[in-house]
Specification:
Largest sheet: 2 strands, antiparallel
Bound molecules: zinc ion
Number of helices: 14
Low-confidence stretches: none
Mean pLDDT: 93
Strand order of the largest sheet: 1-2
């Protein structure tokens, strides 16, 4: 028997009404008055502040504990996050942790399995009856408890800040349309795109165990959250765009805050682990294609491909382990207050020479892997 869908009236009315008003009011304003500098700046500023509070606060800090933040940062993220009107940080994190734990299954609150629009926003409009659970760690924070009790009021106060600019500039209507209504709609749908588009479009460089995808196009609109395949694989990492050239304004802001001493204890996956995961996926895809080729060509290639990947994997791991061991040794020596320059210099020289060997080995392993991969690819063309 199909269960009748029950709607959450408040959420449904709020989501559809704000969107409808924006769809009428924004073109009307643009056609009659255009857009002024202050309107554009207030809209962009509020969009970025609220979106970053969701990305850096609700998501990476509260849901995933990817770093530690001072009370001031937590307070600001909670205030601006409330203005997203996406529920309290406690409820948001509870749902989000369930999403990660049960991704792509029936228990996933916004499973993409129920369709793009369901994952995007229909799930918000449904009466879920899902209790707040799995967030006992967050409930211990008095600031989070305070925000949970008053999130709608806090959100209303913060969201209406643009109206004060409107009053000061004698342009209340313009700031109401762009700074309040359009900003709310933009915040909603940029967050929602992660659950819909980042589970539908893009690549899966680190794992194909889930539907989560890396999508560089989404990253600028989502404050860096577009790299969702990376995120699902290492959800506790404070970055989503982990590579230096990947657009992640939230990561950049957090780095700046760390420099100012306001956040610390960043959790990061080592670069070697990322490369190894990428290689495993690359090999898996080539092996899948080889499985379809004629056995005469495929058999020897399959074994060679696996061997080359394993060799490279080992070389990456060895270099990484050596580096880690050195970091630990340095910390140990520092803690002991070892000041014997001679012993220290000797250990350093030994470490550096072992690095030279490991780097050379890695270089050979890379070359071997690239050559094997190229051979497999060209064999597949004729297979
Ligand atoms: Zn996801
Ligand atoms: Zn997440």
């Amino acid at each position: 028997m199909v269960e009748a869908r029950r709607w959450n009236l408040l959420n449904t009315v709020f989501l559809t009404l704000t969107l409808s008003i924006a769809l009428v009011a924004v073109p009307w304003r643009l056609a009659t008055s255009g857009i002024r500098w202050s309107e554009a700046l207030v809209f962009l500023g509020m969009t970025w502040l609220v979106g970053t509070a969701i990305s850096g606060g609700y998501h990476r800090l509260f849901s995933h504990r990817a770093y530690r933040a001072s009370w001031l940062v937590r307070f600001l993220f909670l205030c601006f996050g409330a203005a997203a009107f996406e529920n309290s940080a406690l409820k948001w994190s509870s749902d989000h942790r369930v999403h990660h734990r049960h991704v792509d299954t029936e228990q996933d609150p916004y499973t993409i399995g129920k369709g793009f629009w369901y994952a995007h926003w229909t799930w918000v409009m449904e009466q879920s009856g899902r209790p707040i659970s799995g967030v006992a760690d967050l409930e211990r924070d008095p600031l989070i408890r305070w925000q949970h009790r008053h999130h709608f009021l806090i959100g209303a106060v913060v969201a209406t800040l643009p109206l004060w600019v409107g009053l000061a500039t004698g342009n209340l209507v313009g700031h109401l349309v762009f700074g309040l209504v359009l900003r709310i709609v933009t915040t909603h749908h940029t967050t929602f795109l992660i659950n819909s588009a980042a589970h539908t479009f893009g690549s899966r460089p680190y794992s194909d165990a889930t539907t989560a995808r890396d999508n560089w196009f989404l990253a600028p609109f989502t404050y860096g959250e577009g790299y969702h395949n990376f995120h699902h694989h290492w959800q506790w990492d404070y970055r989503n765009g982990a590579l230096w050239y990947q657009w992640d304004t939230t990561k950049w802001l957090l780095n700046l805050l760390a420099w100012g001493g306001l956040v610390d204890k960043f959790r990061r996956v080592p670069r070697a682990a990322m490369t190894r995961a990428r290689l495993r996926m690359e090999e898996k895809r080539l092996q899948e294609r080889l499985a379809l080729a004629s056995p005469g060509i495929a058999q020897p290639m399959r074994a060679r491909l696996e061997a080359a990947r394993l060799r490279l994997d080992k070389a990456l791991e060895a270099l990484h382990d050596r580096r880690e061991a050195w970091v630990m040794k340095k910390a140990e020596w520092r803690a002991k207050g070892v000041a014997q320059a001679g012993a220290w210099g000797e250990a350093k020289a030994e470490w550096q020479s072992s690095l030279v060997v490991l780097r050379a080995d890695l270089k050979v392993a890379w070359a071997e892997w690239k050559a094997t991969r190229a051979e497999v690819r060209s064999a597949l063309v004729y297979a």
